[in-house]
Amino acid sequence: MAATSNTGHAVADDTGPRVIMALAGLVFVLLMTFGWLMLGSQGGYITLNPALFYQLLTAHGIGMVGTAGIAGVGIMWYFLRLYVPLNATVLWATIGIFLAGVALILFSIFVMGFAAGWTFLYPLPAKSAGVWEPRSAIVYLVGLLLVGVAFLLVYLDIGRALLAGYGGLGRALGWPMLFGKADEAPPPTVVAATAVMIVNTIGIVVGAAVIAISLVNLWLPSFDIDPLLAKNMIYFFGHVFINATIYMAVIAVYEIVPQYTGRPWKTTRIFLAAWSATLLMVMAVYPHHLFQDTVMPAWALVMGQILSYLSGVPVLAVTALSLLGYLYGAGVRWTLSLALLVLGVFGWAAGAIPAVIDGMIVVNKIMHNTLWVPGHFHYYLLLGMVAMSWGFMAWLTRAEADEEFGALDRLLFGAYVVGGIGLTTMFLYAGSRSVPRRWAVHLPEWGFAGKLGAPMALLVIAGAVWFLARYVMRFQTHQRVAPPAE
Amino acid sequence: MHQTTLIVTLVLLLALAAAFIIAIRGSLVRQPSGDAAAATARIRSPMLWGLLAFGVVVTAVTLRPWPHTVASAEKPIIVSLTGSQWSWDFKPKQVPVGKPIVFAVTSTDVNHGVGIYDPDGRLLTQTQGMPGYINRVQFTFTKPGTYRLLCLEYCGLAHHDMIDQLKVVSN
Lengths: 486, 171
Fold this sequence. Notes:
The complex is a heterodimer of chains A (about 475) and B (about 170).
Chain A: E1 3-4, E2 10-11, H1 15-42, H2 50-80, H3 88-110, H4 134-166, H5 169-172, H6 175-178, H7 188-219, H8 227-261, H9 269-284, H10 298-327, H11 336-358, H12 361-367, H13 372-396, H14 407-432, H15 447-477
Antiparallel strand pairs in A: 1-2
Chain B: H1 2-26, H2 33-63, E1 77-84, E2 87-91, E3 94-96, E4 100-107, E5 112-117, E6 123-129, E7 135-140, E8 145-151, E9 163-169
Parallel strand pairs in B: 1-4, 3-9
Antiparallel strand pairs in B: 1-2, 4-7, 5-6, 5-8, 8-9
């Protein structure tokens, strides 16, 4: 479908993002099932041997991070193509290389037994005490490297297009308006996409570097790596990458919510300041993952604590508050899409609260690596980024307004919300009871976590299956509607 | 501290949920868009400054004294603790109540994390055990009893079996 945008360029075909969302939805459901199996095992509903548990843990972690990444790219690419000329062939290459990487990762885990956790924390991939072979770690890391290359490819194309369209990254970030030299700035999608492109390119390059030196170490064990350096690089990459998935998904909120409220999401100075601040903070905040490494320089840990707090401010005071302002008094007719997008912003903002609290060193001493941590990031992701993805998918396949929030939609949206909040609250409560994360076998006194969590996960899965089924059923038959006007 | 952290978090989450519910209910009726925009602008500035001011206070209160301070005027007792897949090697095995204990933690193989749990199963403090480095964390026990050391950094197949005991005795 060749269309022309208001800026005069030929708008790239949207089949790529539509296929991405179908694949992402399918994998989200599959990986949620892995989560449910782990909770079921901890709660005593089923029996998993620890080796399989840790394989599922690794697959759930890396799978969710990678799938959130590709779903975020799908959302960002879909809307960004309306403003700048993106190359659909590059996106297809990204999809192909990504899937090749995923195949290697799945093979390393479920055929070769690799289970070092998604963070592949050096030197665990090489030192499993005989549980998995180093060659399985090589396959896993090569798979991950391919996934990184896939993302890098599409980000480079996005960078090229932004430079071509706006003549500089500062302009695409709206700096002329931010610093009072212009009255107009690029649309929110362009600003967010520019920030994501910058931080995630840097994040992926650092991730690729630590993967490369880890591969050399696996090949030549005499090539030692400083474990603290590796840890810094891994958490820098991991933190930037996972946050970027949310930043990409929120573009769906900027673009779709105004279609229901009739109030455009404006690029204000505060919006631009928030994005520029976020761009810097997301890269500098990562030492909060290393609070319990007391050999880290004190200044880095202090910076981690201060920036953890400050990182929550744009989310709460800019994105969430703006959304509430746009909604209030808008006289909207609610649809499944709008409900999921609003849930997504709630989940993101809500996740900031336990994150900021755990981002204080004194609290981190008693919460780090307990179930408090999955509590906060399941808010961010399950109720945040992933909810935004479902919302985008519902909007992509939207039909007549009166069919848009039927009884089944409401019932299963409710199941997703109740299950999601139940699950995250269980995680937070279990964290406050000092239950560690990533334990295949819980002590008897911690049995409540899995016992409560598994049924909650089932509710979430019920909702997710419906969102996916609805998308797939409408994928071919629905009438493709014109992209939103700028 | 554990319970307070949970309660504060849940209260803030409820407050956030309440704000969303108010906006969602308010979304059903149409009002001039200027009203909502003006209200948002009115709220945003005090919210931003309030969050920043609160942040300064919280930062000052929680970072002074420095949470990772090790060793005071009194000479501390040092527990040397080494993690290996999948056990702890440490000495002494017994420490007194009321004296600052410094845990000097390292590893022979991969990253581990030592969490010190009281007899009621509460996590009191923790630090990472990393090959090639010694992380130090100080803690003063206030009650005698049998405390547990649990691994808190995923370290492979028997990570969850990496449990040991530390006796805390009264003088």
